[in-house]
Amino acid sequence: MSSPLRDSGKHAFAPTVALLRQRLAGPRQLKGVDEDAVPERLTPAAVLVPIIERPAGLTVLFTQRTAHLNDHAGQVSFPGGRCEFGDPSPIFTALRETEEEIGLARAAVEILGILPEYRTGTGFSVTPVVGLVQPPFALNPDSFEVAEVFEAPLAFLLDSANHQRHSMEIGGILRHYYAMPYEGYFIWGATAGMLVSLHRLLHGD
């Protein structure tokens, strides 16, 4: 298990916590970056986009899912999952699922706001909840769901030069998706799409 902040060099845009608070506090008028061929019936879900305030700059925490899971096995993702009956809000769901998956205490997360709903081709309507985490904090990943935890610089992830556009044919349907390869990790699909939504919000696109 690792959580390194790797040297990523200099990037054109390094947002501050103050900017994140300002932009995420406003009303959501952006359109989400959705996958193609979205099913009509969607399962509500929520994820936490954990932004870590490191001395060298802001980072984003990801999980690498284990290979045996039914949904998105082996993929890089944000901690989160389906909304359960009785969850009062997507924020509650995101914090609950994060605590269950990686052991990050809810009290350690300052909620900054939410991003536009992301609808996936696998049948989920996902609410991305952006939270700020200040070290030190403790993690206890669930080994059944999480193979690894790692961090990547937020500046790298928000640099449009690192936003690759890919496509693949699944079930006879051509689907398009974003990808942001980083230091051997392939960040793609819904996870990359949510980061593109954050990029658009911060840049006012």
What do these coordinates show?
This protein has 205 residues and is an alpha+beta fold. It has a single domain, classed as Nucleoside Triphosphate Pyrophosphohydrolase, CATH 3.90.79.10. The chain has four helices and eleven strands. The strands form two sheets. Strands 1, 2, 3, 4, 5, 6, 7 and 8 form an eight-stranded mixed sheet that branches. A hairpin with a 4-residue loop joins strand 6 and strand 7. The longest helix is centred in the last third of the chain and has 15 residues. The N terminus is likely disordered.
Jot down its keywords:
Nucleoside Triphosphate Pyrophosphohydrolase, three-stranded antiparallel beta sheet
Major beta sheet, specifics? 8 strands, mixed
Order of helices and strands: HEEEEHEEEEHEEEH
Write down the CATH topology: Nucleoside Triphosphate Pyrophosphohydrolase
Oligomer: single chain
Task: Tell me the distance between the termini.
Answer: 37 Å
Number of domains: 1
CATH superfamily: Nucleoside Triphosphate Pyrophosphohydrolase
> Which value, in Å, is the CA radius of gyration?
16 Å
Number of strands: 11
In CATH, what is the class?
A: Alpha Beta
Beta-strand portion reads: 35-45%
Q: Return residue spans where pLDDT drops below 50 for at least 5 consecutive residues.
A: 1-10
- Residues in helices, as a percent range: 10-25%
So how many helices?
A: 4
Tell me, briefly, the overall form: globular
| Broad structural category | alpha+beta
Q: How would you state the average pLDDT, rounded? A: 86
Query: In the CATH classification, which architecture applies?
Result: Alpha-Beta Complex
